[in-house]
Design goal:
It is a single chain. The protein is of the alpha/beta class. It has one domain: Spore Coat Polysaccharide Biosynthesis Protein SpsA, Chain A. Strands 1, 2, 3, 4, 5, 6, 7, 8, 9 and 10 form a ten-stranded mixed beta sheet that branches. The model has no long low-confidence stretch (mean pLDDT about 90). Helix content is about 40%, strand content about 25%. Helix 9 runs antiparallel to helix 10.
């Protein structure tokens, strides 16, 4: 706690994001809620990503950076940051996405007032050309409902680490965020959505475009992480494909 306000630990993986990470970090610094720490784990970037991030860390003691010994993927990088976090709440922001200035204050206030331990919000797609469609998630989601498709945007999540623990992501290259949400839902039962756009999700960067090829990792998630049988995996995977197409079209 800082001056009676809970600290939010912000988890940011980075890899070759020199074109976007400056604005991502600035969107954290521009929050009207100031009790946060930004934990950047760089995955052996070969461009100026690390140089830019270190410039921010030098001037702002709330920002800390570590570098992976070898390139290990976004899930591993996020886990490195989670493991060194100290905040009551954990939130996620990739190094190509943005938060609106009232993101943290709105979400912390909601969770503190209601006692909700796992929340997420609406978000809006964007590219360098401008803003795109708005993704408004359901107001509540359970473990079983989430299996039909990930309606929770990683850049919008906040969970109470004091109650749920500093849970980490399964070490698969993609869909590891959904794996964490499912594990959290096993503990708390349901997550609550805030139907307000509080984040902007970039769709024209390599990190986002690669998610189009995530289908085989989704199958691995069902089989290897969740432990579903072949029939169950096929059932949920078909719904995942349909729901993913609908979300992509927005």
């Amino acid at each position: 706690m800082t001056n009676g306000q809970p600290i939010v630990s912000i988890i940011m993986p980075s890899y070759n994001s020199e074109k976007t990470i400056i604005n991502s970090i600035k969107s954290v610094q521009q929050q009207d809620y100031t009790h946060w720490e930004l934990l950047i784990t760089d995955d052996r970037s070969t461009d100026k990503t690390l140089e830019f991030a270190r410039q921010f860390a030098f001037l702002d003691p709330r920002i800390s950076i570590v570098v992976n010994s070898v390139n290990s993927g976004a899930g591993f990088s996020r886990n490195q940051s989670i493991n060194r976090s100290i905040g009551k709440y954990i939130a996620f922001l990739d190094s190509d996405d943005l938060w609106l200035p009232n993101k943290l204050s709105t979400q912390v206030s909601y969770m503190e007032q209601t006692g909700v331990v796992f929340s997420y919000t609406a978000y809006q797609k964007f590219t360098d050309a401008g803003l795109g469609g708005v993704i408004t998630p359901p107001t509540r989601v359970t473990h079983n409902q989430l299996l039909y498709g990930c309606v929770i945007g990683c850049l919008t999540v906040m969970f109470n680490a004091e109650i749920l623990g500093r849970q980490t992501m399964p070490l698969i290259r993609k869909r590891q965020d959904m794996g964490l949400w499912l594990n959290l839902l096993k503990i708390c039962g349901e997550a609550h959505g805030i139907p307000i756009v509080l984040a902007h999700y970039r769709t024209d960067s390599g990190m986002s475009q690669n998610k189009i090829n995530a289908a085989r990792y989704q199958w691995r998630l069902y089989r290897d992480v969740v432990g579903l049988n072949l029939f169950q995996s096929a059932w949920y995977f078909s719904w995942y494909a349909v729901n993913g197409f609908i979300k992509y079209r927005k």
